[in-house]
């Protein structure tokens, strides 16, 4: 399996990646790669985790101008695509129309030996994608639904297609799983087991969202949606800070009402309910995957009193942190 990237002069090969069909058992059947891409208009970093039937890739780039690259691949794949930041567009004759993603959107794509152009139209770009072998994906594709039957038929006939005409919004639960995958510290076979379970869980959330007859109506304007997601990002990067609702709103140039309404519509919870959940999930990772005391974990996520932290942790997970650590 080979992927090639070219710059605007298609004779100039920028990157060529080959993925092995068989991985060494000594590494738990899992391999990881990090690729740094230096271009005249910017730079980027892309991490990959690969095991049988599953390829996970995520990264970001900072660009001074729009970027156009040519690509070609010699394999077929089902891609769970999540655009975290920035706008991208794939232009290829294999699809009926251009395949575009804006920030905070996701879809599922079947791609069979694609070649074409990829355009990035943002100064900051971040994506997360999971490529599945069609045989792996079809084990979980639901039966007896017109939407899924159409996509299954496209795979069987080898026609590149998106599972849904319109992209959907990345939910709070999806972001939590994506964060778990990107920050996983386990090793070898334990990492593979963890990641495979998370991939299936994320796929489940995509299927459930696609299966809903009526999606949740979002009344916010597009610019306000981006501001709500910007507050989410601020929270995730500043878990140990203490900010008021009005400070958060002013940080992204909106008001309290819009921020509260946006969090409820997009994430199904309050701003501080989301913040507390994010803190507890981070604390759980620290307890299970890092050699930190309960007091250190409490302090790192902004709790001055470890007892208050223990009470909040028990409300979230049903046990106090010391029991969870054991």
From TrEMBL:
Protein name per Swiss-Prot or TrEMBL: Helix-turn-helix transcriptional regulator
Annotated HTH araC/xylS-type domain residues: 229-326
Pfam families: HTH_18
UniProt keyword terms in alphabetical order: DNA-binding, Transcription, Transcription regulation
SMART domains referenced in this protein's UniProt entry, alphabetically: HTH_ARAC
InterPro entries named among the record's database cross-references: Homeodomain-like_sf (IPR009057), HTH_AraC (IPR018060), PchR_regulatory_protein (IPR053142), Tscrpt_reg_AraC-type_HTH (IPR020449)
Organism of provenance: Sphingobacterium anhuiense
Record keyword Phosphoprotein present: no
Keyword set includes Transcription: yes
């Amino acid at each position: 399996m080979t992927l090639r990237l070219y710059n605007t002069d298609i004779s100039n090969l920028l990157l060529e990646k080959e993925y092995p069909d068989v991985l060494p058992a000594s590494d738990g059947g899992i391999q990881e790669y990090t690729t740094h891409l230096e271009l005249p208009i910017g730079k980027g970093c892309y991490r990959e985790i690969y095991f049988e039937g599953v390829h996970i890739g995520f990264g970001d780039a900072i660009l001074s101008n729009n970027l156009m690259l040519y690509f070609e691949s010699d394999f077929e794949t089902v891609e769970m695509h999540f655009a975290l930041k920035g706008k991208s567009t794939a232009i290829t004759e294999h699809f009926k129309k251009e395949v575009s993603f804006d920030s905070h959107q996701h879809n599922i794509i079947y791609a069979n030996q694609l070649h074409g152009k990829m355009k990035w139209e943002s100064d900051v770009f971040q994506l997360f994608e999971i490529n599945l072998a069609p045989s792996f994906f079809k084990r979980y594709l639901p039966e007896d639904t017109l939407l899924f039957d159409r996509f299954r038929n496209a795979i069987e006939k080898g026609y590149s297609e998106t599972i849904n005409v319109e992209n959907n919004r990345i939910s709070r639960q999806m972001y939590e799983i994506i964060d778990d995958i990107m920050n996983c510290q386990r090793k070898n076979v334990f990492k593979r087991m963890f990641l495979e379970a998370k991939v299936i869980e994320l796929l489940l959330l995509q299927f459930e969202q696609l299966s809903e007859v009526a999606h949740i109506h979002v009344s916010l304007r597009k610019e306000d949606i981006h501001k709500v997601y910007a507050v989410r990002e601020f929270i995730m990067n500043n878990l140990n800070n203490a900010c008021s609702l009005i400070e958060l709103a002013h940080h992204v140039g909106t008001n309290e009402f819009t921020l509260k309404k946006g969090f409820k519509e997009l994430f199904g919870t309050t701003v501080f309910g989301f913040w507390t959940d994010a803190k507890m999930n981070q604390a759980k990772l620290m307890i299970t995957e890092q050699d930190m005391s309960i007091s250190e974990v409490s302090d790192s996520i902004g709790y001055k009193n470890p007892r208050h932290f223990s009470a909040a942790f028990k409300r979230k997970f049903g046990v106090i942190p010391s029991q969870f650590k054991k």
